[in-house]
Automatic annotation (TrEMBL):
<feature type="compositionally biased region" description="Basic and acidic residues">
    <location>
        <begin position="755"/>
        <end position="765"/>
    </location>
</feature>
<dbReference type="InterPro" id="IPR002328">
    <property type="entry name" value="ADH_Zn_CS"/>
</dbReference>
<keyword id="KW-0520">NAD</keyword>
<feature type="domain" description="Alcohol dehydrogenase-like C-terminal">
    <location>
        <begin position="234"/>
        <end position="356"/>
    </location>
</feature>
<protein>
    <recommendedName>
        <fullName>Enoyl reductase (ER) domain-containing protein</fullName>
    </recommendedName>
</protein>
<dbReference type="InterPro" id="IPR013154">
    <property type="entry name" value="ADH-like_N"/>
</dbReference>
<dbReference type="Pfam" id="PF08240">
    <property type="entry name" value="ADH_N"/>
</dbReference>
<dbReference type="InterPro" id="IPR011032">
    <property type="entry name" value="GroES-like_sf"/>
</dbReference>
<dbReference type="GO" id="GO:0005829">
    <property type="term" value="C:cytosol"/>
</dbReference>
<dbReference type="Pfam" id="PF00107">
    <property type="entry name" value="ADH_zinc_N"/>
</dbReference>
<dbReference type="InterPro" id="IPR036291">
    <property type="entry name" value="NAD(P)-bd_dom_sf"/>
</dbReference>
<dbReference type="GO" id="GO:0008270">
    <property type="term" value="F:zinc ion binding"/>
</dbReference>
<dbReference type="GO" id="GO:0051903">
    <property type="term" value="F:S-(hydroxymethyl)glutathione dehydrogenase [NAD(P)+] activity"/>
</dbReference>
<keyword id="KW-0862">Zinc</keyword>
<feature type="region of interest" description="Disordered">
    <location>
        <begin position="744"/>
        <end position="791"/>
    </location>
</feature>
<dbReference type="GO" id="GO:0046294">
    <property type="term" value="P:formaldehyde catabolic process"/>
</dbReference>
<comment type="similarity">
    <text>Belongs to the zinc-containing alcohol dehydrogenase family.</text>
</comment>
Length: 791
């Protein structure tokens, strides 16, 4: 039924997919009212685009009925509900292209006829001062007439659902994500090349924004230098326009090598990867013709740091144009004295300050003459792959589908196995294998490939960093002998990503720096001698914990209470099942110990993992029926079918077994453990959702040292004095506890938590994507800071 053409080079700053292609649909008896059609409707914020029937009202005198053939800009920001003026349900999409199927009686363009091919651009009021003076992009009602998705005159909408509910359907004056759209006449531009509408549809917004900023606003000359920050569709069309004007020097700046390569092919004289520069401003000044900086600059990213760098890289009397859309309420920092002394200018530009009726035909003619090669920026998708188009553009062309990702993942697994084949690297090989298994499971649950890749890349960092740091401590004086071999080969996902031209790593993902970080621990001949012993990194630090010969009570204990007061009870198979089946990874297992026991140095994840492994592998005895766990790891445990009646929200420990090796030992003398001694070694007491009956009992005994009570025999007596049982709720569950621990420690970012929550069905993919974006920005900032310190 349809296809989507997408701007291949669009980056994170251009969260848009391009071009819905719809087959021609004839109107029954040329009716121009109560037209039944279909559209991609978003029913509420963060909901998916769903193709469903809608009904269009009769077109008004100043409107045109257009049968869409192509559409662009799926408007993810709007879909997410991030703009307050947007209401739902709604049909989005702009940069449309199609054929005229009906014309209102008072449409001003008398040359327009039914059957004409048209391109669609932004809407205007047509009467304010900017509109009257030839600058409609700066219409006083620009936001209202374009983003409210309703008619300006009476705030009505031309579309409704079959149940009669209104559907907002005039986004940018036309809402082109539909087979049929009622369009305001000011949006309509005739196209004399109907066979090339798939290429020309994006001119209506993105392409004219980049090109117009250069041709209409900045107008650089042969002796000027122009810097373009961000090489998405807007940046590359700005570069094309500069090339057409014969600008003496065009400097392209981005962090993706494929985009920089394309910029060079399109006419950039210099290409700079900002991720590889310690000071991007100085790098630009160094390559500039004058040595003092650029005379013109354009930011197409909307990233605040980039805008500040853009202003700083200008030569005296230079002009910088902000084209990318920054976050709402964002602020930048600029030295006003520098502005005064250097006579610099900072301006904002919308839609390239273009008049679409004049400028779009001009750009089409440039393309026809070969001076505006926009066909290199387009890709076509069927409409059923709309989400793939969104993902490709959202990530700068990442992975298109699970089918593309699985062979990619298999190759990475093989590379990891080959490079970690020696016994001393078994831990790395096992952890990477566990991570790859997680990726496959996430795919099976419908998780987005781009989120999976981010999670996997971060896990590779964690695994290798953990291994190298551990070897540095456990094998002093051995230099790099115990390092993971061949650092590059052991980043298989990242390594393959860099080799595969169709895979571009997301913005902000830091480069591998582990060899440098580990070398900080080394002297010239090897690693520093460490005075502490291996034991202080192990679970031996829990030696003050009560013996696991105690029985479990008929009570509700939170995960944190067990870790804080009854540490060795985590060795119980039942406790392990509960924690892991509720979402804990091997990286999560030490968190409650390290936080609530105040351990310094902290227990390493591998130590807790080994503690669990020793217990769990004892289940391979035929007596217990888990022979397949001979090579137990956390990930296979998570995949084992849960016991009948397992409740992820239950924290009841009734009937739990003691750890193996203690299950048949008598309770004495351990059963006489003073109740208040359970608090020994507790640095941070459980509170709020982590605290329940056991916390109150221990606290009561600590506050009443004159009373002599013992765990386990006097539990009921203490229980009554502490106020009786509390009713557990969702905040006491293991999943909630893990979320709080990850947030408190800061070890895992919001992206990591979101990916895990998505895996266990706690959030949807859009929320995971939001957290991913936020975490990438934070990680990019952290990476830059670390690199600056190393230099």
């Amino acid at each position: 039924m349809a296809s989507v053409s997408a701007n291949r080079s669009n980056g994170l700053q251009d969260a848009k997919a391009r071009v819905l292609h719809v087959e021609n649909v004839a109107l029954d008896n040329q009716k121009l009212r109560d037209i039944e059609t279909v559209a991609l409707v978003v029913t509420e914020p963060k909901a998916d685009f769903k193709l469903q029937p809608i009904i269009l009202d009769e077109i008004r005198d100043d409107e045109v009925l257009v049968e869409m053939k192509y559409s662009g800009h799926t408007d993810i920001v709007l879909q997410q509900g991030l703009l307050p003026m947007v209401e739902f349900p709604a049909v989005f999409g702009h940069e449309g292209a199609g054929f005229v199927r009906g014309i209102g009686s008072k449409v001003g363009n008398k040359s327009l006829s039914v059957g004409d091919a048209v391109l669609l651009s932004f809407n205007t009021c047509g009467t304010c001062r900017p509109c009257s003076n030839g600058h409609p992009a700066f219409c006083h009602t620009h936001a209202a007439v374009n983003h409210n998705a309703v008619r300006l005159t009476d705030r009505s909408t031309p579309a409704r659902a079959k149940d009669g509910q209104s559907v907002r359907s005039q986004y940018f004056g036309h809402s082109s994500f539909a087979k049929m759209s009622v369009v305001n006449e000011k949006c309509v531009v005739k196209c004399d090349y109907p066979d090339q509408m798939g290429i020309y549809a994006p001119i209506g917004c993105g392409f004219q924004t980049g090109a117009g900023t250069v041709l209409n606003v900045l107008r650089p000359g042969h002796d000027d230098s122009l810097v373009v920050f961000g090489l998405g569709s807007v940046g590359l069309t700005a570069l094309m326009a500069a090339k057409h004007m014969g600008v003496g020097q065009i400097i392209a700046v981005d962090i993706v090598r494929e985009k920089l390569q394309m910029a060079t092919e399109l006419g950039a004289t210099d290409a700079i990867n900002s991720e590889e520069q310690s000071n991007i401003v100085e790098s630009i000044k160094k390559v500039s013709k004058s040595g003092a900086g650029a005379t013109f600059a354009i930011d197409c990213t909307g990233v605040l740091r980039v805008i500040e760098d853009m202003v700083a890289c200008l030569a005296p009397q230079g002009t910088a144009a902000v084209v990318g859309v920054p976050p709402p309420d964002a602020k930048i920092s600029i030295d006003p004295l520098m502005f005064l002394l250097d006579n610099k200018k900072l301006i904002g530009v919308i839609e390239g300050d273009s008049n679409p009726q004049i400028f779009i035909p001009q750009l089409i003619e440039l393309h026809q003459k070969g001076a505006f090669p926009i066909e290199k920026l387009c890709r076509t998708y069927p409409v059923e792959r709309l989400e793939d188009a969104i993902h490709d553009l959202h990530t700068g062309k990442l992975l298109r589908s699970p089918e593309d990702f699985l062979p990619f993942l298999a190759f990475a697994r093989e590379a990891a196995d080959d490079s970690c084949s020696k016994p001393q690297f078994a831990y790395v090989r096992r952890r990477l294998s566990e991570m790859y298994d997680n990726c496959v499971e996430w795919l099976e649950h419908g998780m987005e490939p781009n989120i999976i890749l981010l999670e996997a890349l971060q896990d590779e960092r964690t695994v290798l960093y953990s291994h190298n740091r551990t070897q540095a401590k456990l094998h002093p004086g051995r230099g790099n002998a115990m390092d993971t071999p061949n650092q590059l080969a052991n980043f298989p996902l990242r390594f393959i990503s860099l080799l595969d031209g169709d895979v571009i790593l997301p913005t902000g993902f830091p480069a591998p720096v582990y060899a440098k970080e580990v070398s900080k621990l080394s002297k010239a001949g090897g690693y520093d001698e460490l005075t502490d012993t291996n034991r202080q990194y192990s679970t031996g630090k829990l030696s003050d914990a009560p013996s696991p010969t105690h029985d479990f009570l008929d009570s509700n204990f939170t995960l944190v209470e067990i870790a804080a007061f009854l540490k060795h009870f985590t060795k119980s198979w039942d406790v392990a099942d509960r924690i892991i089946w509720n979402g804990a990874t091997s990286e999560d297992l030490p968190l409650p110990f390290n936080k609530h026991r105040g351990l310094d140095p902290q227990i390493h994840p591998n130590s807790v993992y080994m503690m669990f492994r020793g217990q769990m592998r004892k289940r391979t005895d035929p007596e217990y029926g888990y022979e397949e766990w001979e090579t137990w790891t956390v990930n296979p445990q998570a995949k084992v079918n849960k016991s009948a009646g397992f409740d992820a929200h239950s924290i009841n420990i009734t009937g739990f077994r003691r750890p193996v090796g203690f299950k048949d030992k008598p309770d004495e003398p351990a059963a006489r453990t003073p109740f208040k001694d359970l608090a020994n070694g507790v640095a941070v007491w459980p509170e709020d959702g982590d605290a329940l009956d056991l916390t109150r009992c221990v606290r009561w005994c600590v506050d009443h040292p004159e009373e002599e009570f013992h765990y386990l025999t006097d539990y009921q007596a203490v229980f009554e004095r502490a106020g009786g049982p509390l009713n557990p709720d969702a905040c006491h569950s293991d999943g909630s506890a893990l979320t709080r621990l990850l947030s408190d420690t800061g070890r895992s970012s919001q992206r990591r938590r979101a990916a895990k929550d998505y895996r266990y069905g706690k959030v949807d993919s859009d929320e995971a994507s939001d957290a991913t974006e936020l975490a990438k920005r934070k990680r990019a900032t952290s990476s830059r800071t670390q690199r600056a310190k190393r230099r």
